[in-house]
Task: inverse folding
């Protein structure tokens, strides 16, 4: 950890990693935010004791961030990191009051999550080959690589799991009898997601091909690199999804990332009347507010239909 960090901040980071069991990604974000803040404090004001940090110090830091083109969402995350840290310091008697009570977060412009509409998804699922002149080039071949790429795509869309959850899926997490998978999400929280008989069949076929074509491979994880037999890494999955969506010329989305398929999964469920609490459980959200954003896509769809069809729309 950085030498710029206050000893209490170091203890706080150990607390969220070891006791709260935050993910490595979340831990790194907290560490980066606190390091930036204390580095700024030292370079701008010199040695300021923890008890001497005021809302003015924090506001000056935030203003400098905004001047350097940090967006409101990023600044709000840093505010959240400081709030958690000072709450920890207050609880452990390191400070008598938190400077964050007078710090206001900047407003974030509402942005709906991007998704692929149902017509686009049907085209993706139905069109298993791309025409190149007079020839057809398979998108997903029957090779191990082709089956790996297809299973990546189908798992992401049919379950809504995160990229990190996908590559961490274990063989033992597949329950063929109950047609479900066990997913380890943020904060090491487990959830059960139902899967279709078709997806279960794809998983079983993939397992059989792995056993047949790979002399050695990591048998603990579900998905492996078709060449090395090792656990997949995030960039590999990202490239598979991006290339597939690019080849199919999906123009309704800006970012062709695995997370788009998670947004698509959630939006299609809410558009078709799924209970919001059920969607929340399937996505592994800790708060219903995180799930409610997907209802906005449904509302926008209704608005568009009204405007197009109603005489006074």
Result:
């Amino acid at each position: 950890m950085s030498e710029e960090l206050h000893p209490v901040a170091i203890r706080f980071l150990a607390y969220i990693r070891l006791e709260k069991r935050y993910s490595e990604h979340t831990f790194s974000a907290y560490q980066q935010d606190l390091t930036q803040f204390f580095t700024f404090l030292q370079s701008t004001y010199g040695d300021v004791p923890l008890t001497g940090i005021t809302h003015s110090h924090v506001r000056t830091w935030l203003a400098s961030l905004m001047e350097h083109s940090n967006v409101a969402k990023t600044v709000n995350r840093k505010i959240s990191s400081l709030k958690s840290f000072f709450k920890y310091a207050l609880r452990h008697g390191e400070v008598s009051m938190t400077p964050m009570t007078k710090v206001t977060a900047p407003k974030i412009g509402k942005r709906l999550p991007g998704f692929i509409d149902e017509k686009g998804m049907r085209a993706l699922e139905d069109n298993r080959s791309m025409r190149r002149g007079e020839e057809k080039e398979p998108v997903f071949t029957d090779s191990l690589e082709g089956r790996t790429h297809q299973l990546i795509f189908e798992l992401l869309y049919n379950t809504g799991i995160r990229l990190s959850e996908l590559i961490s899926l274990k063989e033992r997490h597949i329950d063929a009898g109950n047609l479900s998978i066990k997913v380890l999400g943020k904060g090491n929280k487990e959830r059960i997601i139902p899967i279709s008989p078709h997806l279960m069949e794809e998983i079983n076929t993939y397992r059989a091909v792995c056993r047949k074509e790979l002399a050695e491979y990591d048998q603990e994880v579900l998905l492996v690199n078709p060449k090395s037999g090792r656990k997949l890494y995030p960039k590999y999955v990202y490239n598979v999804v991006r290339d597939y969506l690019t080849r199919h010329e999906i123009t309704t989305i800006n970012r062709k990332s695995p997370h788009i398929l998670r947004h698509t999964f959630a939006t299609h469920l809410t558009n078709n009347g799924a209970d919001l609490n059920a969607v929340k459980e399937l996505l592994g959200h800790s708060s219903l507010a995180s799930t409610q954003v997907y209802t906005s896509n449904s509302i926008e769809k209704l608005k568009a239909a009204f405007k197009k069809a109603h005489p006074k729309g």
Q: What stands out?
A: Residues 128-135 have pLDDT under 50 and may be disordered.
